[in-house]
Amino acid sequence: MTDAHSLVLEAVTKVFETPEGRLVTAVDNVSLSIGQGEFVTLLGPSGCGKTTTLRLIAGFEFPTAGRILLDGRDIAHVPPDKRGMAMVFQSYALFPHMSVFENIAYGLRLRHWPKAEIERTVGEMMALVNLSGLEHRRPASLSGGQQQRVALARAMAVRPKVLLFDEPLSNLDAKLRVALRAEIRRLQKQLGITSIYVTHDQAEAMSLSDRVVVMNAGRVEQASAPAELYTRPATRFVADFIGQANFLDVAVERVAGGWAEITLWAHPMRVPAHDNVGPGPAALMLRPEAICLAGRAGACTARFQGRVRAVTFLGSAVEYEIETHGQTLTVSDREAVWGGIFAEGEWVGWDFAPERGYVIP
Amino acid sequence: MQASAPPIPIQLSGWRRVWREYRALTRDPIYFIALLLAILFIAIAILYPLLATLAEAISPAGAQTLADVLRRPVYHRIILNTLVMGLTVATLGTAIGFLFAYVQVRLAAPAWIKRAIHIAALVPVVSPPFAVAIAIIVLFGRSGFITSGLLGLRTDIYGLPGLTLAMTLSFFTVAYLNLAALMRGLDPALDEAATNLGANKWQTFRTVTLPLLIPGLAGSFLLLFVEAIADLSNPLVLGGNYTVLATRLYLAIIGEYDITAGAVLSVILLVPSIVLYFVQLRLVTRASVVTVTGRPTGRPQVVTDRRVVVPLVALALTMVGLIALIYLTILAGAFTISLGANNAFTLRNFEFVLLGYGAKAMFDTTGMSILATLCAGFLSMVIAFLVVRGRFSGRNLLDLGMMMGIAVPGTIYGIGYLLAFNSPTEIFGLAILPKLTGGAAVFGGALAIIMVYVIRSAPAGLRAGVAALQQIDPAIEEASISIGADQATTFRRVTLPLIRPALLTAMIYAFARAMTTVSAILFLTTPQTRVMTQQILNETEAGRFGNAFAYVAVLIAIVLLAIGALYALIGPRDGKGAAPASRPLTVAPESSLAP
């Protein structure tokens, strides 16, 4: 990983002007530091600025303000073809008039590599993405998954300093998406190329990345490792966007060492809390699987009572809507599949381990 | 959590933003130079002659002439004539175009009939506009082969009847092509929905199909109107005493050497032409955008009712027969001494054209057309690229400027070039162009003629290029740039191969257009540079129809040969070429799973 590269975004802002003359801030003061060989995913709903951020890094757009540093050198206004990056597109963007071989060799020919060297590298790349033997096919005769692997090989062949992915798996069906994302991760680790990946699919982001950057309305909400993002979301938006979350209104009495003393429906308890939480009203986040139901295997007390309002059978788990203290909680019950399903209207006791909750502002 | 500062107020003034955009373009020198050249070409070859005409028209002498024109009844008569002719031709041409398109797309008719209709509709594109007019004189004139010879009538085809017939048959092709494309693009699900709700075929046609075609019909009508009032060649040959603006204008310049009057009349012709041209362009473009949404969902319903099919097909075939008769007359006339009077076979006409006096015209015209084709093809693709992919303010002006070349009647460009380029062109005392027209012009005036050929034909190529580029996923070009190709390399290695079908269309059109142009070059030919279309006109005016027909036959043969050559050079190569333009070039999602 000695020749891996680092990328830093410093207060990058991009303002577009709509045809009607209105100004839209697509990327708003985004700062981000991506280490050598790191795999970072930009995740967010559509219109959150993640694709614009990627295109700013690629050079297809130029920032209105801020700096983009590649190995410490500001490249914010360097044309895209001079940045030494490579992009993999959602639509694959293979050259339809060239064979698979010519597609992968394209970037190498631009760099005037010797013919033998090109043939060797293309062969290696084809083997790497498991496409050997398809050199002379046209892109149109390949399946979607094969096309995207050609696109991947084409991008990696030029040994880019940074590999950029713009929702590369969105056009593929679910099974293929899972298979290909494992392959992308394997190749990236093997080659150690610094990579930035844009997606709106949280499962994809979580499974691929060293670090996930959640964006909303042009700003960075949180940049953390996947597990931390899930268990320690910084904002309500992140908690809501990543997986499912229940929010309960609580009063915080005291905060110390990352723990908050709170009272939930007259029950005092100590729960992990975000740094920004102080005394006063806050929200307790509970993941559906952090809640246990009384009467199941394992010790779960019936500290709280609720009534089942809706039952959804999902296969690996049963999801209940439980009405409790005037609020509705989503609860995921993995035991129900074999241990019996509660009926609508039934009263259930429930509880949670305090360390599985998280208090956010 | 990242500290999120309040949004930075970044409000650039308009001009500063434009300045920034253009400064950004200079980062890619070849791209920037291409843009500069495009702007320069449009400014010099298209806008400058137009402005020269306008300037002449609003000069004191011009104002005097304008007052004269507006006062004198003879001019009222001419303007009325022009309008009547334009409306008649537009109505009939749109009707025939609609008939052909409807039979082609919506009727259950044998394939050979549809093929015959299609070919008959396309023939006028490759022949000079007044070829039909000459044949009509020979067939239906005072001593016409049919009217006088067969029927013994003493009819007068000159004037409005002859003009209407000749122009309708020469111009309806564009209405046919527009309407057929629109009809094919209509979503069959709409018909199915109407039928499903209980409408019969006639009700469906009246309440669904026809309303959706109205923009296309209106667009075709306007385009034909503009073409008719701008045409000079047919009125010259067939007008007789029926004077229209174009012929009056011609007379002012060629007969009276009054270029000011020419400029004034030009402006009168110019204003409605430009306005109506852009209105129709908008109508047709919008109609096709609105209705062509994605893949057709059902099978188009064809009309099988014999009470509808038989009369419509019969009517269409009658028109096909008339067109065939006209072109057979041209062919026959080329091989006879004097069709109607002396029907003996001869090769003298072809000798005159191929080996005698006409040979120089043939080689000059072909040579100039080849040069114009190369320029127009390349220029239209580059400008299409700048217009569709460019990200700088004013790129729509580039498009608009280019389209002026065809929106403005050709005759006016003839006058504009005379006014603009009869002396060397200077900017701030710096000579940038030598004298291009008239006596002692460079290359015997050939440069001006080639420029006119290019500006008249590049707009069609531009539209083809724009349509093709809009079908190509921009990510394909970005992919090329992202792995290190600059704009010029990307254009050459990726974009151009992908829009090759559009380039082919552009070049075929450019060549056919150049070879058949009349109105715009009548004022620009010099004794050193002979142009076939003008020679045809001369022979016709001198009554030597045999020579004229031979010229027309040779001209059509050259155009057909060139089309074949262009297909061979840049046409689709079996299996290895670019995908056909009709298929979107973006790679289809999962649906295209390989075997």
In short:
By secondary structure, chain A is of the alpha+beta class. Chain A has helices at residues 50-58, 100-110, 115-128, 144-157, 174-191, 202-208, 226-231, 236-241, 336-339; strands at 7-17, 23-34, 39-43, 65-70, 73-74, 85-88, 162-166, 194-199, 211-216, 219-224, 246-256, 259-264, 267-272, 280-286, 291-293, 304-313, 318-324, 327-333, 347-352, 358-360. The two termini of chain A are 40 Å apart.
Key words describing this protein structure:
heterodimer, A: 361 residues, alpha+beta, six-stranded mixed beta sheet, five-stranded antiparallel beta sheet, 9 helices, B: 595 residues, mainly alpha, two-stranded antiparallel ribbon, 24 helices, 4 strands, 71% helix, globular, disordered N terminus, disordered C terminus
What does this molecule look like?
The complex is a heterodimer of chains A (361) and B (595). Chain A has 361 residues and is an alpha+beta fold. Helix content of chain A is 25%, strand content 36%. In chain A, helix 5 (174-191) links the parallel strand 7 (162-166) and strand 8 (194-199). In chain A, helix 2 (100-110) runs parallel beside helix 4 (144-157). The longest helix of chain A is centred in the middle third of the chain and has 18 residues, at 174-191. Chain A starts with 6 loop residues before the first strand and ends with a strand. The model of chain A has no long low-confidence stretch (mean pLDDT 87). With 595 residues, chain B is mainly α. Chain B is 71% helix and 2% strand. In chain B, the strands form 2 sheets. A two-stranded antiparallel ribbon of chain B has the order 1-2. In chain B, strands 3-4 form a two-stranded antiparallel sheet. In chain B, a hairpin with a 2-residue loop joins strand 3 (425-427) and strand 4 (430-433). Chain B is globular, with a radius of gyration of 26 Å. The two termini of chain B are 49 Å apart. At the A-B interface, strand 1, strand 2, strand 6, helix 2 and helix 4 of A face helix 20 and helix 21 of B.
